[in-house]
Design brief:
193 residues, alpha+beta, Cyclic Phosphodiesterase, Chain: A, 4-stranded antiparallel beta sheet, 8 strands, 22% helix, 33% strand
Length: 193
C-alpha cells in the first residue's frame, strides 16, 4: 500500500526581492540548458532559501501553530545581512541548487537563532543538518559543483513564514518578520510625553 504524501507544508524562508528572484529563475533556465537537464526551474515568485521546516501534513496548519511561530519569530534578534551564492551543484536528493562559501554565514547564524527560538517551544521539526541553498530545479542528472560568476547576492532583511500547498505551486505568505538589532532604540508608540 502506497504511503500518502503530505499536501501542506509550513516553512520559514529568506526571499530575495522581485528583481533578484527573476535573475535566479533566469539562471535556472540557463543552467538547465548548459547541463542538459530536463527539470522545470522554479517560478521567480517561489525562489527562496529555506531556513527552517515547521510542518508537513494533510490539512492546513492549525492557527495556534502559526500564531505561536509568529510570536517566536518576533523574538529573534539579528541584524539584516548580505547573502552570496557562488556555486551551483546537485544534491543527492535530485535538487539542483545554488550554494555558497563564506557568503552564506549569515544564513547559518540565522538558522541557529531560529533553532533557539523554535525548538525549545517544540514548534518546529528538528533539522539533522543545514546547508544554506536556493533550489533552482529538480533533476535526476547529477551536476558537480561549479562556480557562478558573478555570484547571486541579496540583502536579507526579514524572514517569511510560508504555507506551501504541495504539488500545486502555491505559496501563501502568512507572516513577514523583519530582522532587528539588539541595539535598536525603542520605537515611539505615538504616546504623548
Amino acid at each position: 500500500m502506497a504511503t500518502a504524501c503530505p499536501t501542506d507544508r509550513v516553512f520559514i524562508g529568506a526571499f530575495p526581492d522581485a528583481g533578484i528572484s527573476r535573475d535566479i529563475a533566469d539562471l535556472g533556465w540557463h543552467l538547465r540548458d548548459v547541463h542538459g537537464l530536463t527539470g522545470r526551474p522554479l517560478k521567480a515568485r517561489h525562489v527562496h532559501s529555506t531556513l527552517w521546516h515547521i510542518y508537513d501534513g494533510f490539512f492546513a496548519p492549525p492557527p495556534e501553530l502559526i500564531d505561536g511561530v509568529t510570536r517566536r519569530l518576533a523574538s529573534v534578534e539579528m541584524p539584516a545581512f548580505r547573502v552570496s551564492f557562488n556555486r551551483a551543484m546537485s544534491f543527492r536528493n535530485g535538487a539542483f541548487v545554488l550554494c555558497g562559501d563564506d557568503g552564506v554565514a549569515g544564513l547559518e547564524m540565522l538558522h541557529e537563532q531560529l533553532k533557539s527560538a523554535l525548538i525549545v517551544e517544540r514548534m518546529a521539526l528538528v533539522a539533522s543538518s543545514f546547508t544554506p541553498h536556493v533550489t533552482l530545479l529538480r533533476d535526476r542528472r547529477f551536476v558537480p559543483a561549479h562556480e557562478i560568476i558573478p555570484p547571486i547576492e541579496w540583502e536579507v532583511t526579514e524572514v517569511v513564514l510560508v504555507h506551501s500547498l504541495l504539488g500545486r505551486t502555491t505559496h501563501r505568505h502568512l507572516a513577514r518578520v523583519p530582522l532587528t538589532r539588539r541595539c535598536d532604540a525603542p520605537r515611539d508608540q505615538g504616546q504623548g510625553v
